[in-house]
Amino acid sequence: MGRSPTSQANSGETPLRLLVVEDDKDLNRQLVTALEQAGYAVDRAHDGEDGWFLGDTEPYDAIILDIGLPKKDGIRVLEDWRAAGRKTPVLILTARDRWSDKVRGFDAGADDYVAKPFHMEEVLARIRALLRRAAGHASSDLVCGPILLDTRGGRVAVDGNPIKLTSHEFRLLSYLMHHTGRVVSRTELVEHIYDQDFDRDSNTIEVFVGRLRKKLGVDAIQTVRGLGYIIAPPGIEADPATPKSAH
Fold first, then answer.
1. By the 8 A CB rule, do 84 and 56 touch?
2. First to last CA, the chain
3. Phi then psi for 66, rounded to 5 degrees?
4. 3-class SS at 64?
5. CB neighbours of 158 closer than 8 A, spacing ≥ 6?
6. Where are the beta strands (DSSP E) in the chain?
7. How far apart are CA 163 and CA 157, in angstroms?
């Protein structure tokens, strides 16, 4: 919000697609604003029913879920997601003195929690950690051959030389590098780098890939005909495995 595409791309977080489910409209707005300024694509819901539906039908990379929600309790929402096989990382929000909520949340399938009131930087740091763990990365730096993507600082470098990317170029590279060595379809990329309200067009993915290849200057992003794209260290032939389903 209020930032140029370039500043979003270098604002300090890994831009993937998130969902915020919080009934307090002011807090919901604050969370969404902070996450969008960090470069994420963010959808929002203000009650449990809408939150459950979005989490059940859209392919989010992580979800921030309040426990005390109208229409459908947050714990029930989470239990229903897990029962349906939804494995999206979930960060629950709970009142500071409700330790029992934390236990219920973890038992229901939560991956982490933040107690209210909280510092926004803590939420951002925990989301970064959830995304790294979900993709099998222990470090905040993602590396593929000479390419380094700093998820904490929002920077990209090739052989130590900084590369300036637009927000959408950064989101696409970030998603591919979170899934290094796996074929990612155009549909999956569209669903993870744009929020729900964005006018999505899978044809633009090819444009972004072309720009990334020129800016990176290394042969890392490979096209797997009929399937999508894969990023692998230059000189290594990627295995054209079937792409993971979008959800």
1. yes
2. 27
3. -75, 150
4. strand
5. 146, 147, 148, 216, 217, 218
6. 17-21, 41-45, 62-66, 90-95, 112-116, 141-144, 147-150, 155-158, 161-163, 221-224, 228-231
7. 5
Tokens for 198? 């964005």
Let me know: does 59 contact 188? Beta carbons within 8 Å.
yes
Q: What is the pLDDT of residues 1-57, one digit of tens each?
A: 333 333 333 333 345 889 999 999 999 999 999 998 887 889 999 999 999 999 999
Q: Which residues of 163-173 are buried (b: 16+ CB within 10 A; e: fewer)?
A: bebbbbbbbbb
- The percentage of the chain sitting over the pLDDT mark of 70, rounded to a whole number, equals 82
What are the extents of the domains in the chain? 5-134, 141-231
Report the Cα 191 to chain-centroid distance in Å: 11
Q: Is the peptide bond before 117 cis (omega within 30 degrees of 0)?
A: yes
Q: Tokens representing 230?
A: 């894969």
User: SS3 for 77?
Assistant: helix
Tell me, yes or no, if the two domains 5-134 and 141-231 fold the same way. Answer: no
CATH 1.10.10.10 fits 141-231, yes or no: yes
* Angstrom distance (rounded) from CA 210 to CA 58: 27
What's the CATH class of domain 5-134?
Answer: alpha beta
Phi/psi at 221 (5° precision):
-90, 115
Residue length, the chain? 247
